[in-house]
Amino acid sequence: MNINMTFSRHSIRWLQITLAAIWLLTSGARALADNITLPEQLIGATQGFLEFTVEDYLATSQTEGRYEIEVAQIDPRLRMPQCDKELTATQGSPGAPLGRVTVKVRCEGTSPWTVFVGAQVKLFRPVVTTTRPLKRDTVLAPGDIVMRERDVSLLTQGYLTAPDQAVGQKLTRPTVNDQVLTPQHIEQVDVVSKGDQVVITARSGTLAVRMPGEALTNGTMSEQISVKNLNSQRVIKARITGPGQVEVSM
Question: Can you give the residue range of the structural domain that contains 129?
Fold first, then answer.
């Protein structure tokens, strides 16, 4: 099958004009790009700076975890002159480079300028969470908690990074299922309660003298409480060393 294509002088002229217009537009766009700093360049400078900064922060603080960086979109209408030097970046917001951060991207060339670029840095770490709703004063058992990965940049009240930080501790407030436990959620269980009969050990070097006593206040491990010496009826301060055991220095 033969296909005959016929072009009139008018159509050829129109095609020439169209191609010339496309060439002018593309060459003009290239010239414009050569004269301005593109948003992609600002985003790239911000991304690179934050990757280096976060890696350095994790290494210095000996923090383990994986991170994600999301640089905010930049208004495409922004027209900053092309920099004749390499762009520099510094952290524009104080504190650790986590959560919402601002990066100051600066040109220090012949036409200096500064742009502030926002970003979100997420740091994911395994933290202690609950496996079910729990009541206040619950003494945590291994089955009550599980390690789950969370973005710790959002956990402004703190978090626990190991099960042994929670097991055996008492809840200070009720919790819901899958709740991240913070240091404010737990406290040590009382080893000695008010009215308990205790053994007071008075030490001096290798010499130890024991006598009966009565706890006048509650206390946790290593806490100092008031104790009555039942032999002398004197009230003394003694440190809890175990259930029913307190110690004083002679």
Answer: 125-187
